[in-house]
Amino acid sequence: MGEGGNLIMSASVSRRPVFGRRVWHFLSFGGPGTAVYVCFVLAPILISLGYSLTNYNPFRGETHFVGLDNYRVLLTDEEFLTSLKVTSILTAIVVIVPNVAGLAIAVLLDRQSWFFSSLRTVFFVPVVLSSVVVSVIWTRLLDNDGLINQTLRALGVDEPPGWLSDPDYALYSLGAILSWQMLGFCVVIYLAGLQHVPQELLEAASIDGAGPVRRFSRITWPLLAPALTINTVILLISAFKIFD
User: Rounded CA gap, 194 and 189, in Å?
Assistant: First the structure.
């Protein structure tokens, strides 16, 4: 019993320095980042949340608790609701169109040749273009006297639509522009996901009689879930930035 007790005591004593070193390592590596996050991200969020429940006026210095009244006013404001509706429609366009089109293009470009490699580069070019360049390009194309309307007039359309000036078309034109700009990013992410699909599984399914559609739906598509998640998150962030 004496030797067993000594062994237990020595083991517990030996664990203490190890535990202390782990705590010190955590504080030295994670402490600064955690402190910065708390000071510059978490604390401002909590303070803003607290202010949103009051009628705080920085000029008068008066603060009165009003509960959820500010949110009620916001949710009944016509301008806010209109902005929210427009942003929701634009978000749906920007998330769905590049994802669907990007997946289709990635499947077509998943070939090993210089031609398809060149096409991948072409599709990715809009991603690296600045917003100024993109706006200039599409303004020249979608202007009332731009290339698209001139082509429509040449085809016999007397009054082409105002793609950027007409409220019925402007939102969808903006969605098309943003989708075009983000399409290359989705293509690259899906291509990276397709490269990690085991060819052995596809060959085995083909031997078992599975057609291309069945192989894609049962093997390829489930393995592309991480790529779909990445694209959706990035597209959501890009779309909601427009709300600002």
Answer: 9
